[in-house]
Amino acid sequence: GQPDVTDPIHVYTRSDAAGAPATWAEYLGKKQEDLLGVGVYGDPGLLDAVIKDPLGIGYNNLNYAFDMDSGLPVAGAWVPPLDVNENGRADAAELYDSKEQAIQAVLDGTYPSPPARELNLVTNGQPTGLVQVFLTWILNDGQAYLEESGYVALSAERVTAELQKLD
Length: 167
Known about the structure:
This protein is mainly alpha-helical. The chain is 33% helix and 6% strand.
């Protein structure tokens, strides 16, 4: 930082109910409605507000914080480290310079949940027919597309367990 800058920071949060703010609030031991700041609609809006404000700070999903092509932080954005090991400082190992590093940290458990979170699919009863085919594809071939989309692929053990639920 710049110690000579004494202006207050501008905190941005989501104005709409969504998974990212709910998970961020949970990480802080709060609820989404407890998050203070200027409410901005959607992930793209929040990122845009922070980029345009030199004193702005906010939170976002990996797919918005990191560029889809390069995997580096979006131009104009910086992804600061979080003190996830709670030692009172943000260590170099807690700085993720790329989406690939952030995803690896989730995979190896060094980046906790929350703020990382699982997403689940829900069906109306036991899936059959095309729904079952689609869910099977997600758990098999579909895993190859997750990282490029900013998600973490399931472990082989987890895939096996979830496939058994489809039988």
